[in-house]
Specification:
124 residues, alpha+beta, two-stranded antiparallel ribbon, 5 helices
């Protein structure tokens, strides 16, 4: 297939993202590239990847719809939850949730001497 310049630009943007998420390399010489890309787009969790795959399929004039959006009305709630949920060091944290800061190891009753070192406060 002959790719338009817009498609090549979008495919270049997807190369790193697809490799990071699935471990699959995108090669323009691959005759099954659009079919593979369609399957990866449906499985992807990255909204940019999903949106870009839809744009590429539209430019290639291939009818393509993401199935997860049409499956059930509960998917909207799931997608909203995923968009506001972040994994930090293996712990899922809601973006709206206020995480309390851990209390300092030093109690407030002890006197702490402070020094400045390279513009930073150093507790001793």
């Amino acid at each position: 297939m002959v790719y338009s310049p817009e498609m090549v630009t979008l495919l270049q943007q997807l190369r790193h993202r697809v490799f990071a998420e699935f471990g699959t390399r995108i090669r323009l010489a691959d005759p099954e590239l659009l079919a593979v890309l369609g399957e990866l787009g449906k499985r992807s969790r990255d909204p940019f990847t999903r949106k870009t795959v839809v744009e590429i399929m539209a430019l290639a004039e291939i009818p393509f719809h993401l199935e997860s959006a049409a499956k059930s009305p509960d998917n909207k709630k799931t997608e909203d939850r995923l968009a506001t949920e972040v994994t930090y060091r293996g712990i899922k944290i809601s973006r709206d949730e206020k995480v309390p800061l851990p209390k300092s190891q030093v109690s407030t009753s002890q006197s702490v001497s402070r020094q400045m070192y390279r513009g930073q406060v150093v507790n001793k």
